[in-house]
Specification:
Blueprint lengths: L5 E5 L2 E6 L2 H13 L8 E5 L4 E5 L6 E8 L2 E2 L3 H9 L4 H6 L3 E5 H4 L4 E2 L11 E2 L22 H11 L17 E5 L7 E2 L1 H6 L8 E7 L11 E4 H5 L5 E11 L9 E2 L29 E2 L4 E3 L1 E3 L6 E2 L5 E2 L3 E2 L2 E2 L6 E10 L5 E11 L6 E4 L4 E8 L6 E2 L7 E3 L10 H16 L3 E2 L8 H10 L7 E2 L1 E2 L11 E10 L4 H4 L29 H9 L3 H13 E7 L7 E3 L4 E3 L8 E7 H12 L13
Parallel strand pairs: 1-4, 8-9, 11-29, 12-28, 13-26
Antiparallel strand pairs: 1-2, 3-4, 5-6, 5-7, 5-9, 10-14, 12-32, 13-28, 14-24, 15-18, 16-23, 17-22, 18-21, 19-20, 23-24, 25-26, 25-32, 27-31, 30-32, 33-36, 34-35
């Protein structure tokens, strides 16, 4: 019986067998640690399948770890001293085998310790810093190790939705949409990852004084209450930029579009008011105000078809209107106008509008711990609760949002933020390296405050002392770009689709809100059948069709001859039936498939 041999694969390609896998793995590992093999090579031995996988291909994610031998890390104090003095660098550590890069495949066979004190003889590697296990965005969440993983991911998702100071060349950019937070602030509680990324040079947050308490039911569920005085002092204010673009196209027949103010003889003229903000060149004047649906780029195009001969045999070109107007609810000031040339030599005009977005009821705010909420009420400053020093919170958070989500990191950041304000320095809250709770409490005690973060509050409306003590602190909040002004939608009557005669879909097309099957089921469950009739028929695509009494199919309504008859039996005994036009369309589609749909008419009871 032949001895079993281990299969060896390089980048997924089978290259041969090897009799002693452990020996081969040891030789490969030593060669890499001695610098004989490049650090980009990874290898792993799978005992279950008896395979050695060697990977050298591009695109693998690797991460550096400290090598551990016999329970001791190879990185010593001597190495650290040499690095501090500049005698050694990162590459030297990799070359000497002190640090090595592992990919996902090799990491399966490694036992990695989080901290040096956790090391045992079984460990193969040690984390350089436990925060290295996290992604860049997740690593920006302070006191992360005190939260549930789901809420950490939720918080990380909302980093990408924050309004801030995202780009220094904002005046020159022509992004379709852009946001700029007024008076952004550095986070009082930071993490080391933020220092590496230089987040403080591009801040996207503000530090709020937050109290955790109910407020007359205005902050039920995830709603938050905001202090109007804080908004008047520019808390959460931002600018919204929108860019409109148009091209002066040249057509094959020598005709071309033209940027100009359209005149009354132009087909599709919108009226003089729509063109109020345009300059002589047909482009909106900088710093002029444009209302919604007003023209920002005036443009006329040649007719789609050949010119008609006008009276006296003169050929007159009737140009048509093709201006660019602002979108619905997107009025604002013209911030800048750009003129450039397209790839075919056409002139391209871009107009950027700017509008201020002041926080209002329905706008969204979120902390770094996944505690998001919409503004439920904006309360005058004099009605806000206040503490013994007369400090009124900027934001009031519902107490029920903490226990169920178990975001203890949120509470710790509030405490640390409070301590940082008193100490007048930024506190480090890096995950797994954060400041201890007793250190925060010590700072609070030194400044004459309760170490628990609790304070006595008074009702701003009645002036009475609130029973129980209120947890309050300073925490970083982000304003997200989900603005109620951009989502608000209503419709009474408006455009309909040609095919189904039902209202159009989408906010931009002045569409209706879809009343689907599930919504219909709820009305049936409540017994509101007439409301169901109103929503699905009356407000949608109600149609009165004539049906033949004998054949049961839709009759012909000849308006010219003023005659109604059945197309099959020519019977003129037809009756009007109220139905949804979509149902009539379905009957027509069934007929096109060769199916005979018959409606049985009965007298109304």
């Amino acid at each position: 019986m032949t001895e079993a041999k281990t299969k060896v694969y390089v980048n997924g390609k089978f290259i041969g067998f090897h009799p002693s896998p452990e020996k081969l793995m040891k030789e490969l590992l030593n060669s890499r640690r001695q610098g004989l093999l490049t650090s980009g090579i990874n290898f792993s031995y799978n005992k279950h399948t008896d395979e050695i996988l060697i990977n050298t291909d591009a695109g693998r994610v690797q991460r550096p770890l400290i090598v551990v031998e016999n329970g001791k890390p190879k990185l010593t104090e001597e190495h650290i001293e040499k690095i501090k003095k500049g005698l050694m660098n990162w590459e030297d550590l990799v070359r000497e085998g002190v640090i090595e890069y592992l990919d996902a495949e090799e990491e399966e066979n490694a036992l990695v310790a989080e901290k040096a004190e956790d090391l045992t003889p079984q460990h193969t590697h040690l984390e350089i810093n436990p925060v290295g296990t996290l992604s860049i965005i997740t690593g920006m969440i302070p006191f992360l190790s005190h939260n549930l993983s789901g809420k950490v991911l939720h918080g990380a998702k909302m980093f990408k939705q924050a309004v801030g100071f995202g780009q220094a060349n904002l005046k020159l950019r022509t992004d379709t949409e852009g946001f700029l937070l007024h008076y952004p602030q550095r986070e009082i509680v930071k993490t080391k990852i933020m220092d590496f990324l230089k987040v403080s040079e591009r801040p996207q947050a503000q530090n709020f004084v937050v109290a955790i308490m109910p407020y007359y039911g205005f902050n039920m569920l995830d709603a938050v209450v905001i202090n109007k005085g804080a908004i008047d002092r520019c808390l959460g204010r931002s600018s919204y930029f929108r860019v409109y673009e148009s091209t002066q196209t040249r057509y094959p027949g020598g005709q071309r579009d033209k940027f100009e103010i359209p005149t009354e003889d132009i087909v599709g003229y919108q009226g003089s008011e729509a063109y109020n903000s345009l300059g002589e060149d047909g482009l909106a004047e900088v710093e002029s105000y444009v209302d919604e649906k007003h023209v920002v780029i005036g443009k006329t195009s040649p007719p789609r078809f050949l010119e008609e001969i006008a009276e006296f045999g003169v050929v007159k070109e009737r140009r048509r209107e093709s201006s660019v107007s602002t979108r619905k609810n997107m009025g604002g000031y013209v911030d800048s106008v750009f003129l450039t040339e397209g790839p075919q030599g056409d002139i391209v005009a871009k107009v950027k509008t700017r509008s201020e977005r002041i926080p209002e009821v329905g706008d969204k705010f979120a902390s770094r711990h996944g505690q998001k909420g919409v503004v439920g009420a904006i309360i005058p400053e004099e009605d806000m609760p206040f503490n013994t020093d007369g400090i009124r919170p900027d934001l009031i958070l519902n107490p029920h949002s903490i226990p169920s989500r178990m975001t203890i990191g949120h509470l710790l950041e509030m405490l640390a933020g409070k301590a940082a304000c008193l100490k007048a320095e930024i506190i480090d809250g890096t995950a797994f390296n954060d400041i201890e709770q007793d250190e925060i409490e010590k700072i609070l005690i030194e400044n004459g405050l309760s170490p628990s973060g609790m304070e006595t509050f008074y009702d701003g409306i009645s002036g009475e002392r609130i029973e129980g003590r209120i947890f309050t602190g300073v925490i970083t909040y982000r304003r997200l770009y989900h603005l109620v002004a951009h989502k608000m939608q209503a419709r009474s009557r408006g455009p309909v689709q040609i095919l189904t005669r039902q209202p159009t879909e989408g906010k931009e097309k002045e569409g209706g809100l879809r009343f689907g099957e599930m919504e219909g089921e709820t009305l049936i469950g409540h017994g509101a059948s007439m409301l169901l009739q109103e929503k699905i028929v009356e407000d949608s695509d109600k149609s009165i069709e004539y049906v033949c009494e004998k054949c049961g199919i839709i009759a012909v309504n000849d308006r010219i001859r003023n005659k109604k008859y059945c197309p099959i039996c020519k019977n003129s005994k037809v009756y009007s039936v109220e139905m949804s036009y979509a149902f009539k369309l379905m009957l027509d589609e069934l007929k096109s498939l060769g199916i005979y749909p018959k409606l049985n008419l009965v007298n109304k009871a």
